[in-house]
């Protein structure tokens, strides 16, 4: 990338060069203004995030100093026109997920939770008053949110299997239950909790402040992927939430699915970014590493691995780009984003494995640039819908038969 000035000074604008991994020049589908903002993203992530990513990943800590940088870039405000710095298109949001993922999937996941799932829940289901109060403050990083859907015994079957309950008592709701794998929950100000209304059996959404009595979030320890993401086990025992904190637009799981529909394609883009990050590191290593008196990049078997990885990346970008274009046009369906997520994460998994193979033993140490991507890929492969669940969504679409159970 050509950087004409340090992005933090603002004196000159960075320009966006094509990534070597963008073999077909998909970047050209971005408008000139989007490319300018993409260059700012890339500059900040290269200059500020990449140097600290391995350190925080190894310590299993989240680098909170990145939050103001993300807010300044506009990464946290796609649903807030007052603070948004770029046109809110699915194509641009997807490309930004790629740019973030190719440097640090943990930071990209933080953004996905804050600006996608948590803010998306308020955007879809919040009252006008809730939206006006919360979304601008979340866009600046003043308020941090999390998204509480997955449970210890309910993941892929969340549409039917939620065990967390909500009971109306006067002007309050009483919540009881547990959530698992809730990103950002250990330091968020509130969590959007989805619970089943005991009265009608429908899923409702609640803005649950993390300092309420009966609410507890414990960090999940000893992860081998996305270690910087602060995932939590949440328990709620008679947590009282006022009616004013209920999301009135969330009346059933169909509304929750609308929120997930906003972000699933971006997870596919993020997976492409992880593949790109590993592949670019492997390419640089192969050009530098000497074996048998010459760079290993000159060996046929190494070139074979690099080309297969590049093919995976190129195909995945094309699929994600088209799915995002369909989302912008208002014609994308669940099966379109599901296919992109299933395909891109599977090809990511292959590509990071090729990259680790190219590095040999050096592929399992952090300082060679591949190991973190190799590990993080396992989390992206599963979250926001497993490959199996997304496959069944697509299978139902093309056959007309529901094979979920």
TrEMBL record:
It holds the Pfam family Acyl-CoA_dh_1. PANTHER family: ACYL-COA DEHYDROGENASE, ACYL-COENZYME A OXIDASE. Residues 31-142 form the Acyl-CoA dehydrogenase/oxidase N-terminal domain. GO terms for biological process: fatty acid beta-oxidation. Keywords: FAD, Flavoprotein, Oxidoreductase. One of its GO terms (molecular function) is acyl-CoA dehydrogenase activity. Its cofactor is FAD. SUPFAM superfamilies: Acyl-CoA dehydrogenase C-terminal domain-like, Acyl-CoA dehydrogenase NM domain-like. Belongs to the acyl-CoA dehydrogenase family. This is Acyl-CoA dehydrogenase. Residues 256-398 form the Acyl-CoA dehydrogenase/oxidase C-terminal domain. InterPro entries: ACX4-like (IPR045008), Acyl-CoA_DH_CS (IPR006089), Acyl-CoA_Oxase/DH_mid-dom (IPR006091), Acyl-CoA_Oxase/DH_mid-dom_sf (IPR046373), AcylCo_DH-like_C (IPR036250), AcylCo_DH/oxidase_C (IPR009075), AcylCoA_DH/ox_N (IPR013786), AcylCoA_DH/ox_N_sf (IPR037069). Residues 146-239 form the Acyl-CoA oxidase/dehydrogenase middle domain. PROSITE patterns: ACYL_COA_DH_2 (PS00073).
């Amino acid at each position: 990338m050509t950087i004409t000035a340090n992005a933090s000074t603002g004196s000159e604008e960075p320009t966006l060069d094509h990534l070597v991994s963008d073999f077909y020049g998909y970047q050209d589908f971005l408008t000139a203004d989007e490319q300018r903002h993409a260059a700012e993203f890339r500059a900040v992530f290269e200059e500020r995030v990449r140097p600290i990513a391995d350190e925080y990943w190894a310590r299993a800590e989240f680098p909170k100093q990145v939050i103001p940088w993300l807010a300044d870039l506009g990464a946290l405000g796609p649903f807030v026109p007052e603070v948004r710095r770029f046109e809110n298109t699915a194509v641009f949001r997807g490309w930004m997920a790629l740019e973030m993922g190719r440097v640090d999937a943990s930071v990209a996941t933080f953004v996905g939770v804050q600006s996608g799932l948590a803010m998306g829940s308020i955007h879809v289901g919040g009252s006008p008053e809730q939206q006006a109060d919360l979304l601008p403050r979340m866009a600046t990083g003043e308020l941090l949110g999390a998204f509480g859907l997955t449970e210890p015994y309910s993941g892929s079957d969340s549409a039917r299997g939620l065990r967390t309950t909500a009971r109306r008592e006067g002007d309050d709701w009483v919540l009881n239950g547990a959530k698992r794998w809730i990103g950002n929950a250990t330091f968020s100000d509130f969590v959007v909790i989805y619970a089943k209304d005991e009265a009608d059996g429908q899923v409702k959404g609640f803005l649950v402040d993390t300092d309420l009595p009966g609410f507890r979030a414990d960090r999940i320890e000893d992860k081998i992927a996305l270690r910087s993401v602060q995932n939590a086990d949440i328990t709620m025992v008679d947590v009282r939430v006022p009616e004013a904190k209920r999301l009135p637009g969330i009346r059933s799981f169909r509304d929750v699915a609308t929120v997930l529909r906003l972000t699933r394609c971006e997870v596919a883009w993020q997976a492409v970014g992880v593949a790109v990050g590993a592949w670019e590191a492997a390419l640089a290593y192969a050009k530098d590493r000497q074996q048998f008196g010459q760079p290993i990049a000159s060996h046929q078997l190494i070139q074979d691995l690099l080309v297969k990885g590049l093919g995976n990346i190129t195909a995945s970008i094309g699929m994600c780009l088209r799915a995002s274009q369909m989302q912008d046009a208002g014609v994308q369906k669940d099966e379109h984003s599901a296919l992109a997520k299933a395909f891109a994460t599977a090809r990511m998994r292959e590509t990071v494995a090729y990259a680790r193979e190219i590095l040999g033993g050096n592929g399992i140490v952090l300082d060679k640039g591949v190991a973190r991507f190799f590990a993080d890929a396992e989390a992206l492969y599963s979250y926001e819908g497993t490959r199996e669940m997304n496959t069944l969504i697509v299978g139902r679409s093309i056959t007309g038969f529901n094979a979920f159970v």
